[in-house]
Amino acid sequence: MKFFILLIFWLSAIKALYIPRSSGSSFSWSGFLPGVSWIGIKDASDDQEAFENWVLSQSNISFNGILQNIGGLSSILSSSEVSYGVVVASPSKTNPDYFYQWTRDSALTLRSLIYWLDDHGFPSNSEISKIVESYIENNYHLQRLPNFSGDFNDVTKKSLGEPKFHTNGESFNQNWGRPQSDGPGLRISTIFNYFELLNKYGKSITNDFLKNDANIYFKIIKFDLIYIINNWNINSFDLWEEINSKHFFNSITQLRALKDGIALVKRYEPHNEDFIKQLSSIFDQLKNYILNDSGFTNPSIPYLVETPPLLNSGKRSGLDAATLLGSIHSHNLENSISYEDIPFDVNNNYIFNTVISMVSDMKYRYPINHDKIRFKQNIGVGLGRYPEDVYDGYGSSEGNPWFISTATAAEIFYKTIFKYINNKEDILINNSNKEFFKLFFDDEMNEDEDFKIPFNTPEFNRLIKSLLNYADSFLIIIKDHVDSQNGDILEQFNKYHGYMQGANKLTWSFSSFYNSVRWRIKAIDSINDNLN
């Protein structure tokens, strides 16, 4: 049985996670530790060093795990079964059978490869860039496949809402939760990320079939934009493929895709003013829907609601890790265009409140988290998909913590740190976020008092340290449950005994962990480069 970090570890961490506060709205403390010495959640250097070594090792293992699940790079997948550039959700073919390519999973996974290219200076003749372009080529063919969601020749392009395909490029013609409206938008934004990288490094498309980036826009991206124009307001299955309704994740990632799409239309057909106006109008309509008409925010609930009809019917609380995934995948802090007009970025109060609401629920819901109950909520726990979940990775019984959800919580706060520092933002504490920020103070806040923590003051820097510690505490949960011998990550870990279960070598699990660690590195670099 895998045990959590010893109790003494957490007790030693607790003090580091609190920020002592003086009376009123001013702050005073001592002992701020600048530099790398405050990485991790434990002060003892041996444990910190072990954690740091594991993080880097597991990140490399996770990236290799992604590559092993992609046709053309894998040493475990047969080329007769998996086409070049195809992302397999998992090599598992039975109990459960995840041996397919999902539009959503593939688009999100490819972002990890694009991040790798950027972090390594886009090396010439890289197999990674060839795979990215093969993925794009594969999607050209997938778009045109007849499927149960519709016909490509239909003016509304409903066929593009088909969620998954066989790994050899054939249609999946069995019953499934379709349509899934998030796929086309995610594909747009992933390809947009790659275009941004090409421009940054002065590179060009090398794939002979694709020819050039303009051709990709006209032959692939434009059709996905037409899909969103015609289908943004339809009912669709959620990213968990269970509920046919309106969902935050689908809507917010479509909004991001429209933002990217408008930039591409202006680049490749600037004289098509009607199309630009149409996309801009849909962007405004969708944004207004998200903010005002959807029910994704509720005046009586502090967190985001993934599927409002389930809340309204009393079937669910609305709390769902999909909202956190929607936040991180609808924003990009590195592209040349700004996403500030897309709501609910990582440092939004609703996002903070969603995380602490999930922690509050799941530290009681999952027995594997019960050793955290005695502490304040500034220690991460294993997070599942949503409180009412009954999928156990094989069938219906009881839901468990997921690696995707837990890694995403960590990424939220690494990105928050990066954004605060990169933008030189003061931290504003008000009634909307006090429930979150008071986790890091050792006395009560005045509920009627709003205050500001100025950028790069000792108070600001200490709070940034606490956010880093909090993010790290979620990675420590993952450390306790991945395979300690080879670093494999499955879909879930059992809520009672902690062993992994569900789909083996899940690509999305590897990708989520890799992305989280990437932002951890960026957060730490920004701290060391910018704070006193």
UniProtKB/TrEMBL annotation:
Residues 66-511 form the GH15-like domain. InterPro entries: 6-hairpin_glycosidase_sf, 6hp_glycosidase-like_sf, GH15-like, Glucoamylase. SUPFAM superfamilies: Six-hairpin glycosidases. One of its GO terms (molecular function) is glucan 1,4-alpha-glucosidase activity. Residues 1-16 form the signal peptide. Its EC number is 3.2.1.3. It catalyses: Hydrolysis of terminal (1->4)-linked alpha-D-glucose residues successively from non-reducing ends of the chains with release of beta-D-glucose. Belongs to the glycosyl hydrolase 15 family. This is glucan 1,4-alpha-glucosidase. It comes from Hyphopichia burtonii NRRL Y-1933.
